[in-house]
Design a protein that fits this description.
mainly alpha; two-stranded antiparallel ribbon; 8 helices; 56% helix; globular; binds iron/sulfur cluster
């Protein structure tokens, strides 16, 4: 019998709290930061990378990354609700975008960390995104965590709909 959606989502939250998994994800983030530093793209904090519809950008994340971001932001007092996600979909952006800034810096997934609109990063972004994607997938596989990968806000909507953590800010 397959796992229920609720138990899968709860397993993502539980996994995100395990020190070994948290450390493995942080290692991927560090690797991305070092690779980005070598390329040196400029970020003018335009916020365009988080206005998905207007800029033709799609953000994807795994279940573990989504649960991790929801939990970290909730613990920092920036929890969101399903209604916040629906509003962000209407606005064409991310529920954690505040003006031009990201308010989910610690929790944001690899897809946010590898993306730069600076043309100098044009070649490296897809390579880095693919490498980061494979690293995150292997964390799911190595730790027996069900792998689901999807569009950011749709994943947030599904995870928050079943969320066992408090998301009140
Ligand atoms: S988590 Fe932050 S960087 Fe990622 S899309 Fe949302 S606002 Fe943008």
């Amino acid at each position: 019998m397959s796992d229920s959606p609720s138990s899968v989502i709860q397993s993502w939250f539980a996994a995100a709290e395990r020190p070994a998994i948290a450390a493995a994800i942080e290692a991927v983030h560090l690797e991305i930061a070092e690779a980005i530093r070598e390329v040196g793209p400029i970020c003018l904090a335009s916020g365009n990378c988080c206005r998905f519809e207007a800029h033709g950008h799609r953000l994807y994340a795994s279940g573990l990354e989504v649960a991790r971001c929801v939990a970290i932001c909730a613990s920092e007092g920036r929890g969101i609700t399903v209604e916040d996600v629906a509003f962000a979909v209407e606005q064409g952006n991310c529920p954690w975008q505040d003006g031009r800034l990201c308010t989910a810096r610690a929790g944001r997934p690899t897809g946010c960390r590898v993306y730069f609109c600076d043309p100098r990063a044009g070649e490296v972004v897809p390579q880095l995104a693919e490498r980061a994607h494979q690293r995150i997938k292997s964390i799911h596989d190595q730790h027996g965590i069900k792998y689901v990968y999807g569009e950011w806000r749709m994943m947030l909507r599904d995870v928050l709909g079943e969320s066992p953590v408090s998301t009140n800010s």
